[in-house]
Each structure stands twice: as C-alpha cells, then as structure tokens.
Specification:
An 8-stranded parallel beta barrel has the order 1-2-3-4-6-8-9-10, surrounded by 6 helices. A two-stranded antiparallel ribbon has the order 5-7. It is of the alpha/beta class and 387 residues long. The protein is globular. The N and C termini lie far apart (53 Å). The chain has a single domain (9-377), classed as Divalent-metal-dependent TIM barrel enzymes (TIM Barrel, Alpha-Beta Barrel), CATH 3.20.20.150. Helix content is 45%, strand content 11%. The protein is built from 14 helices and 10 strands. Bound molecules: alpha-D-psicofuranose and manganese (II) ion (MN) (2 copies). The site of alpha-D-psicofuranose has 9 residues, from loops. InterPro entries: L-rhamnose_isomerase, Rhamnose_iso-rel, Xyl_isomerase-like_sf, Xyl_isomerase-like_TIM-brl.
Amino acid sequence: MAVTSDAVRAALRELRIELPSWAFGNSGTRFKVFAQAGVPRDPFEKIADAAQVHRYTGAAPEVSLHIPWDATDDYRQLGAFAVDHGVSIGVINSNTFQDDDYRLGSVCHPDPRVRRKAIDHLLACVDVMDATGSRDLKLWFADGLNYPGQDDLRARQDRLAEALSEVYDRLGPEQRMLLEYKLFEPAFYATDVPDWGTALLHCLRLGERAAVVVDTGHHAPHTNIEFIVALLLREGRLGAFDLNSRFYADDDLMAGAADPFQLFRIMNEIVAAGAIGGEVRFMLDQCHNIEPKIAAVIRSVMNVQEATAKALLVDRAALHTAQQEGDVLGARAVLMDAYDTDVRPLLAESRTEMGLDPDPIAAFARSGYAESVIAQRVGGAAAGWGA
Ligand code: PSV
Ligand code: MN
Ligand code: MN
C-alpha cells in the first residue's frame, strides 16, 4: 500500500537534526579564513544563531558544543541560556588535536604524561555534560602516524582502549560515549580509529553505552555508507551521524550537497529500521567558509528533511514483494519512484501545519536577524578550525 502523506508528515516531525556550534563561527581552509560580518563572539551568541535555525525549521532543537572552542566559566548558565532561546545542549565534542603536546597523538601518544593530559580533558568534558544535561560525549581522535615504523600499531590500540575505558567508567548511567572514525587526516599513513570496524570493536569491549559515529565525509571514495549504517543498526551500535558533504574528502560542506542520492540511501536504511525518533542522533558537522552561515545551516536541515521524506515515501510492501519475487527492476522502480518525488510541497505543508513559514530561508531573510547581528557584533570568533 502506498504511503500516505499524513504518515510521512507525522514521521518527519520526529526527525531532530542537531546543529554544531562551530558552523556559526568564522572558519576556513588552511589557506585562508574569510571573516564574515556579524558572526558570534562567544558560545552564547553561537547558540543564539543556532536557535534561529530551529525557529524557522522547527526541526533543530539541540546544539552540539566543542570543548574548548565553546569554553565558558559557567556551563549551567550556558545550558539555561539555550533553554531560554528554545533549544538545548546536545552532544559534547572533545578536542585532543589543537595542542602542541599532541604532535604524536593524544590518548595513543607514547608518553604517559600526554595521555594523562588527554584523558583529563575527556573527563572534563564529562563534567560539562553533567553541568549542561548533555547525554552524549563524542570522541574524535586525530591520532595516527605519518610513517610506517613511527610507533607500534598494536601498542597504540592498547593505549586507546585503556583511555576509553577510564572515560567510559566515569559516565553517568544515562550518558553514552560516541566514537567517531576517520580514514585519514591529519595522519596520512595510519589513523588509530580509521574505520567503523575499529570503532565498533572498541565499543563492544566498553559496554552497551558505547556506539559508533558515522561522519559521512570520513570514508574512501565509493564507500557504501548505507551498508555500514545498516550493519551498525543491526548491532544496535549506530550512535550518531555527523552529516556533511564529500566532494573530494572531508569538506564539511552542506549535507546532501555532493550526493543527495547517497543521503536518501542512508535515510532509507534508517527508515527501514524504524530508527527515526530513537537513540540515533542526526547531527550536522559543517563549516561554512564562503556562504552565509545561518542560511547554509537552514539549507542543510532542509536537505536532510527532503532526503528523509523521500525515504519515508518508499512503498515498503511493494518493495518487499518485488524483493521476494526476485523482481530486480521492480524493486529498483519502487525505490526510484520515492526518490524522484518532489517532496518540497509536502514539507511546506508540514511546516504550515506546525505554524511555521513554508519557506524557512525566505522567512529568515525577511526577519532582519542577519542585519541586526552585523550591527551589534564586532570581532566575531573563529569556529576553531580557522583559529
Ligand atoms: C574531524 O574531521 C571532525 O569530523 C570531528 O567530528 C571533529 O570533532 C569535527 O570534525 C570538528 O569540525
Ligand atoms: Mn565529524
Ligand atoms: Mn570531519
């Protein structure tokens, strides 16, 4: 039976897309940071900007922090500020990659002093979670080697396991550890958590509250990401996404920009597993170097919603029948019928039902918010990467 648009709109309301605080600060490549007028000067202003995205999409009620990029003396106050602005603090991201001590790694470093420093930072991030009410700690390690023989591959895995276990033990009963993998960069020969398999092995050893983060930009070309998603869902170990684009490598551009069909295929696995509105977090991990930041984040949220709406439109019964009958072309047609549907009217209708403007980008532009912050804010902060 074909899916009704009522059912699609109801399911879409369950989809929450979490925003990264760093998407709102100045950022750039290693060649140049193009400063934009009116960018936030502190974590409070980043949250205020993120709240604008939620205001016009109704789909982004949580903001991820990155510590120490979002350092403040009073995290409780920051959490309360978020709530006052209609959002809340989501995942806490650690940073063990921007310190001279981490030249040879952080938790995998051969020197126990450096490892201790990195672990202490991760424990401090759990303190921030306690103060802000955040439930998830996201760990990405830049650790790795540039040359064969530079360090012992297996010893580094032992050090990693030891560090993860100490931090896992510190988590509260409702808190989770989310481990992100990345194929390469900044290390070029061997990365200590390069793939989903390595991340999953560590999570399985740690316990049930450890799960894997799939950053869509962190794979080799042509990797079948939806297969990884299906596999992790099957094991109950898909913790979160870092959604972004991937033209050549980890570009951190708008989700769905390079390959909207891939985003659809990923969301199709999520919908098939009934995983919307559950424990999987749908986060953006983006930086906007040349485009206006708030509008770019709104556009990204809409891209994820469009891919999800198409996935929700897949006629599962017809697909199942075609699969059972070995009808290869029929099964493909069912999937493509959904993908080829223009879901923009459906999403506009859904927004109107929620009391929102059907066109979030136009509504934000008309609000005058961008002009008012340009007038108020002078000397915007770097997002972190461009610092
Ligand atoms: C690393 O490339 C990464 O994807 C990690 O998630 C970091 O925390 C994030 O980028 C920061 O932009
Ligand atoms: Mn990421
Ligand atoms: Mn990345």
